[in-house]
Amino acid sequence: MIEVENLSKTFKVYHHRQGFFGSFVNLFSRKHRIVQAVDNVSFSIKRGEVVGYLGPNGAGKSTTLKMLTGILVPTSGRVTVNGYIPHRQRKENAKHIGVVFGQRSHLWFDLPVQESFELLQRIYRIPQVEYNQNVEMFDALLNIGKFFRTPVRQLSLGQRMRADIAAALLHNPEVLFLDEPTIGLDVVAKARIRQFIQQINTERQVTVVLTTHDLDDVEKLCKRVILIDKARLCFDGELAALRRLLSTERILSVDYAETYSDISIPQAHVTYQEGNRVQYRFSPEEISTANLIGAILQRFKIVDISVQEPDIEELIKTVYEDNRALEQRFTETDAIDLTNRNT
Amino acid sequence: MHHLSLYLHFVKLRIRSQMEYRFSFVFDLFSQASIAVIDFFMIALLFNRFKELAGWRLWEVGFLYGMIGVCFAVAEMVGRGFDVFQNSVVRGDFDTILIRPLGTFFQVFSQDFLLRRVGRFSQAFVILLIANSQLTISWSFVKVGYLLVSLVSGTSFFIGLFVIGATSCFWTIQSIEIINIFTNGGVFMGSYPFSIYRRWFRHFFTFIVPLACVNYFPALFLMEKVVPSGVSTLGVYLAPFAGFLFLGITMLFWRWGVLHYQSTGH
Question: Which site among A39, A247, A321, B59 is 20 to 30 Å from B158 CA-CA?
């Protein structure tokens, strides 16, 4: 469905001089530096997969998506989506993909949702029957009927996102690209969108590629994750494998009812202590969460207790720090190179 | 056909949304028409004193004024998308255009439609009609066709200027203001017979930026005025096509700009 081979993208970033005189000088001499946004990335995605494309800010996620959607032309390497080369066959490719950028709407902001949809129906030449079926289904799943006649600019963020995702799927695309589809949404709205994506994927076999910072998104939706950092691919495989690969350390936070002099627990390290609040770091391989909580309850009185999993940023950090993970993926020189880059 | 019906649909939506602010619409219409009337009044005053300018009488100049005014008003009405393109590049909306299965030029062109330019259009058109009634132009089938082609060509010329301004946004993000010298300045310059300008100036606005080709030369032909020395009659016949050629070249420039955007992003 999607084939990416040795894909690279470099940008020239120009140094802009300030002020009136500066902007005049800019026309003639512009200093620039070369920024490698995507560096030799390869992967292949099959029909019906849901893939999380993850990485910290500025890692090159959006740049990759822009190359897959035909917005940007790669500096080198090959891309095909549905058999089309996105930047060469932009219009053909566009007919078969749906795109949502969470940060910005693709709808006409002064038109009601309904009219935006009807415009899209004309643009993509969607047959009336198909259009009606889709609108009906999206209403049932996303409840868009409630704000169908409201101008897009008056929608709440959650409503706008629902409208945008529905709009991206109106023409029954084979592939759906989502860039931060749940950014800024509340828990309920997030859950609704995740459920919708899942349903569209299972019912229509739509291939989904999404970028996100939200680990919940990934856990609920993606079997497979592709990790990218500093423009390079650093992991491609099942989410479960990624977890296994990494030392899956977790954090246990406890609020004790009293002040204890010795709060040490075997197999768990105190990482933080302030008053009666203590944080332990532990690895479920050494001690299960249940046993750890049991051990604490046996000895101390507690007010509150919670377990946190590392978020994506931390996961990625661990990928770099943990050489075991790197050795699985790269040759030794690459690994050394990467670790050097990180320091 | 698909494109035409889509375009008409876009225009319909735009007109409807602009009609929602009816008061502001009517007010704009009225104020624009009044400004334009004063504009022509100034020219009339000039002629009240001098009677003639380089062999051109008041209503002959009025004919020039009407022609260029009609073209510019229509260009502003339909070419609005390019005129305000700067904003959409800054907002990053151009990415949205690139994910649609339609050409970029068509999408920007159909993005906006400024109905309120009807005010300016009608004023210029009325002046054109009055000028015609004051002159004794012997209208023939060929001349009517020639006038229509000239008007469409003049409109294409101004749209071409908007396209240049819009395309420059791919490099500078801000539209280069210099284009306004040619658009607004072009309307002003085109309102007077070209023979009053200097030689290099005439050449520049004939061969590089073909303003004279869509206005002055057609007017010469239609009013059967004496063709200035050094200008071939065939050149006068063919002059209106320069507007289409100009638009075509700016479309190539646009395409180049889009390629630049796709390789650099923003």
Answer: B59
At A312, the pLDDT band (50, 70, 90 cuts) reads low
Top residue of B4, B8, B99 to mutate, by most chain A CBs within 10 Å, is B99
- What separation in angstroms does the CA of A341 have from each of A6, A13, A62, A232, B66? 20, 21, 21, 11, 67
Please tell me the distance from the alpha carbon of residue A224 to that of residue A239, in angstroms, as a whole number: 5
- The mean predicted confidence, pLDDT, of chain B is 88
Distance (Å) of CA A262 to CA B78, B214, B260: 79, 92, 66
Other CB atoms within 10 A of residue B30 CB: 11
Q: Hey, are the CB atoms on B91 and A104 less than 8 Å from each other? A: yes
Mutation site, B9, B98, B174, interface A, largest A CB count within 10 A? B98
DSSP character for A150?
S
Q: Is the pLDDT of residue B87 over 50?
A: yes
Residues 6+ apart with CB under 8 A from A201: A48, A50, A207, A208, A221
CA angle (B199, B202, B205) in 5-degree steps: 150
Determine contact, residues B72/B78, Cβ cutoff 8 Å. no
Which residues of chain B from 84 to 103 reach within 8 Å of chain A, CB to CB?
91-93, 95-96, 98-103
B103/A101 CB distance under 8 A: no
Of A149, A154, A155, which Cα lies nearest the Cα of A135? A149
Q: Quick one: which of B167, B170, B194 has its CA closest to B179?
A: B167
The rounded mean pLDDT for chain A is: 83
**By mean pLDDT, which of A319-333, B25-39, B193-207 is the weakest?**
A319-333
- The confidence band for B266, taking pLDDT boundaries of 50, 70 and 90, is low
Query: Does residue A15 surpass a pLDDT of 80?
Result: no
pLDDT at A338 over 60: no
Residue B164 has a CB neighbour count (10 Å cut-off) of 23
* pTM given for the model: 0.82
Instruction: Show the CA angle centred on residue A22, arms to residues A18 and A25, nearest 5°.
Output: 145
In A, minimum Cα distance to B265 occurs at A72
